[in-house]
Write a structure and sequence with these properties.
This protein has helices at about 5-20, 50-60, 90-105, 110-115, 150-165, 195-205, 210-215; strands at about 35-40, 70-75, 85-90, 120-125, 140-145, 175-180, 185-190, 225-230. By secondary structure, the chain is of the alpha+beta class. It has two domains: about 5-125, Alpha-Beta Plaits (2-Layer Sandwich), CATH 3.30.70; about 140-230, 2-Layer Sandwich (Alpha-Beta Plaits), CATH 3.30.70. An eight-stranded antiparallel β-barrel has the order 1-3-2-8-5-7-6-4. A hairpin with a 5-residue loop joins strand 6 and strand 7. The protein starts with a helix and ends with a strand.
Length: about 230
């Protein structure tokens, strides 16, 4: 691997270290918990999306899926061209070991060069369920902190009610995963059969009483949300 590629990979690794969190969840079934690693980024201005997406598929096939503890990898893009890669792992050690191997593998250096390292953010969360939405074509991922002083037992109850009283009843809903990292940042990932059916639920969600109760517990300034169509899905 040439010196320039090594410097780029080191820069990406530094961003990972800054953005990465060891994980735990306050409301987790210990028999089902998995690590969900969420990485968002932009590609460089001189990179073709078609070339990047083809190479991304190859990375999954020849590298990530071969790592110990690997469960599932998903890549997606939003309407503005922002990318996400979501990888589920059996445990935190597997995720960390894979990242270390990635940083030293010459075969992925060209892929790393396509990514704008300054735009990259990565967090790892302990989830409350195993992934079970293979038919999904679209995902919403929302991360946020709760307001200081929030009763987390009460919050967990409201969080679950969002699914039972609203989201889980919507056409196209496939699965809702919730989790948290060590700092207490919450994440919700909702999988849909299509973008259109996800879009159709946005306004009703904002108007639903349980949703208003749920959002009332959030620190709005900390909230981030991405809505991504999976790559290579019709």
């Amino acid at each position: 691997m040439n010196f320039k590629c090594k410097l780029l990979l080191l820069a990406i690794w530094a961003v990972f270290l800054i953005g990465c969190d060891t994980t735990k969840n306050n409301n987790t079934d210990m028999n089902n918990e998995k690590i969900m690693e969420v990485t968002t980024f932009n590609i460089t201005s001189d990179t073709s999306p078609l070339i990047f997406e083809k190479r991304d598929m190859e990375i999954e096939s020849v590298f990530t899926s071969k790592q110990s503890g690997f469960v599932k990898r998903q890549s997606g893009v939003d309407d503005e061209g922002n990318y996400v890669v979501v990888v589920f792992w059996d445990d935190l050690k597997s995720a960390e070991t894979s990242m270390s191997k990635f940083m030293n593998d010459e075969s992925v250096a060209d892929y790393a060069k396509m990514i704008d390292a300054s735009s990259m953010k990565m967090s790892r969360y302990t989830m409350n369920k195993k992934f079970n939405a293979d038919a999904s074509q679209f995902v919403e991922i929302m991360a946020f902190d709760v307001k200081p002083g929030t009763d987390m037992t009460e919050f967990d109850g409201i969080n679950q009610r969002v699914e039972t009283e609203f989201t889980g009843l919507r056409e196209g809903f496939l699965q809702r995963l919730t989790g948290a990292n060590e700092q207490g940042t919450q994440v919700v990932a909702v999988y849909w059969s299509s973008k259109a059916l996800s879009d159709a639920s946005l306004n009703p969600f904002m108007a639903a009483p349980v949703s208003k109760e749920f959002m009332g517990k959030m620190d709005q300034a900390s909230m981030s949300m991405g809505r991504y169509k999976f790559l290579n899905r019709k």
